[in-house]
């Protein structure tokens, strides 16, 4: 009977292990099938802290903390797709192993209810539970639990304030890890209770290496320019790069991934179109400008993308600093309006008319 129970337990443990993402036995048919269905960002999510690329300082500090099992409260911040969530999940997995993970780690993100009530009840109750210093397999593990509050910048200030005292009172049994994109949206008393780590946008070289690694594992054919374009359009966001790579691979079947595939998938506006728009601003009339903008919008390009590209191009144009500053200030304004849901055509028109006005002041001087 005991042997039977033991067997059942270990198979349940195995299921759990697969669920939290550790690879199943190599060559196991069901594991293969499961992997195929996974999006590549999940499939290639770092499984241990060592696999996290480019964030050397964070990894060094975390590894030291993992050795001594003395983790401070953490605050990770930085742009999307730079490894924040992956790092803490990998660290927690290394600390507790697959079995204890469920009991010891509470993960709450923006999709969960995280109002003040939840902080008062769920988080506080979880934090109050005591934790033993050994795993079920007898290995030592830290005598505390981890509460991961992902996307913490979307928590209300009241909910953040409710965390202050909990964080201090339960420091014997619980560590908090707050993760966010905008550190300025976390209230000061919380930031001062945590060790802060900034996650940098990933460097081109590192992104390229990762992408090539995935290409090799997935048996993809690619051109050097194709990979270069992926790195360029993703701007330091590895998640974006990997997602585009997967789309390009699906689009292409067995053919190689080229630069034009990538620009197509990423919705990048062809540079000829941007140049054409600028030359109308410089030399032509408002009526022509209206038509050109309407055409671009009708082609289905996103205004936000056009503004980003216009920004990169304007920087290198032969306008003087004052003109560039007026234009870029207008860009910031338009960007905000678009984020608030303004009409794309009107916003672009208003931006381009400022460019036109500035270009014409330089001609009249
Ligand atoms: N530093 C990194 N090293 C290795 N892989 C990374 C790194 N950063 C991102 N990735 C890849 O990108 C995916 C997304 O990363 P992750 O979820 O950790 O981003 P994030 O920083 O939490 O972003 P967000 O702010 O949008 O939540 C991972 O599954 C992984 O494949
Ligand atoms: Mg995240």
From TrEMBL:
Keyword set, alphabetical order: Acetylation, ATP-binding, DNA replication, Nucleotide-binding, Nucleus
The cellular component terms of Gene Ontology attached to this UniProt record, alphabetical and capped at eight, are: DNA replication factor C complex; nucleus
Please provide the Gene Ontology terms (biological process) for this protein: DNA repair; DNA-templated DNA replication
Pfam families in alphabetical order: AAA, RCF1-5-like_lid, Rep_fac_C
Write out the ranges of the annotated region (Disordered). Answer: 1-37
Recorded GO molecular functions are: ATP binding; ATP hydrolysis activity; DNA binding; DNA clamp loader activity
Per the database record, which ranges form the AAA+ ATPase domain?
A: 70-202
SUPFAM superfamilies to which the protein is assigned, alphabetical: P-loop containing nucleoside triphosphate hydrolases, post-AAA+ oligomerization domain-like
Protein location: Nucleus
CDD domains recorded for this chain?
Answer: AAA, HLD_clamp_RFC
Q: What does this protein do?
A: Subunit of the replication factor C (RFC) complex which acts during elongation of primed DNA templates by DNA polymerases delta and epsilon, and is necessary for ATP-dependent loading of proliferating cell nuclear antigen (PCNA) onto primed DNA. The RFC4 subunit probably functions as a scaffold on which the other complex components can assemble.
Describe, as the record does, how this protein assembles with itself and its partners.
Subunit of the RFC complex, an heteropentameric complex consisting of a large subunit RFC1 and four small subunits RFC2, RFC3, RFC4 and RFC5; the RFC complex interacts with PCNA. Forms an heterotetrameric complex with RFC2, RFC3 and RFC5; this complex has ATPase activity but is not stimulated by PCNA. The heterotetramer of subunits RFC2, RFC3, RFC4 and RFC5 interacts with RAD17. Interacts with ATAD5. Interacts with CTF18. Interacts with CNTD1; this interaction facilitates crossover formation.
Name by which UniProt lists this protein? Replication factor C subunit 4
Its source organism is: Scleropages formosus (Asian bonytongue)
């Amino acid at each position: 009977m005991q042997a039977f129970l033991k067997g059942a337990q270990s198979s349940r443990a195995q299921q759990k292990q697969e669920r939290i993402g550790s690879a199943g036995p190599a060559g196991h048919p069901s594991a293969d099938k499961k992997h195929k269905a996974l999006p590549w960002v999940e499939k290639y999510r770092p499984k241990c802290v060592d696999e996290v690329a480019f964030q050397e300082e964070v990894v060094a500090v975390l590894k030291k903390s993992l050795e001594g099992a003395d983790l401070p409260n953490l605050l990770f911040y930085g742009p999307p797709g730079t490894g924040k969530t992956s790092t803490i999940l990998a660290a927690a997995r290394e600390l507790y192993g697959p079995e204890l993970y469920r009991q010891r780690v509470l993960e709450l993100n923006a999709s969960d209810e995280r109002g003040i009530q939840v902080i008062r009840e769920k988080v506080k109750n979880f934090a109050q539970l005591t934790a033993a210093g050994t795993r079920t397999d007898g290995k030592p593990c830290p005598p505390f639990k981890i509460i991961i509050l992902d996307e913490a910048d979307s928590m209300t200030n009241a909910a953040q304030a409710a965390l202050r005292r909990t964080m201090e009172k339960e420091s014997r049994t619980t560590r908090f890890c707050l993760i966010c994109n905008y550190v300025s949206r976390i209230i000061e008393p919380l930031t001062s209770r945590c060790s802060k780590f900034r996650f940098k946008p990933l460097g081109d070289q590192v992104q390229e290496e990762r992408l090539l690694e995935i290409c090799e594992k997935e048996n993809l054919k690619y051109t050097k320019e194709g990979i270069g374009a992926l790195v360029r359009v993703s701007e330091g966001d590895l998640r974006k790069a990997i997602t585009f790579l997967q789309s390009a691979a699906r689009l292409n079947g067995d053919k190689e991934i080229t630069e034009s595939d990538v620009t197509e998938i990423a919705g990048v506006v062809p540079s000829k179109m941007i140049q054409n728009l600028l030359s109308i601003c410089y030399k032509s009339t408002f009526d022509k400008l209206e038509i050109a903008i309407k055409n671009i919008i009708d082609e289905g390009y996103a205004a936000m993308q056009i503004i980003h590209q216009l920004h990169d191009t304007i920087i290198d144009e032969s306008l003087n600093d004052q003109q560039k500053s007026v234009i870029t200030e207008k860009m910031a304004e338009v960007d905000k309006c678009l984020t608030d849901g303004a009409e794309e055509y009107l916003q672009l028109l208003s931006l381009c008319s400022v460019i036109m006005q500035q270009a014409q002041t330089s001609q009249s001087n």
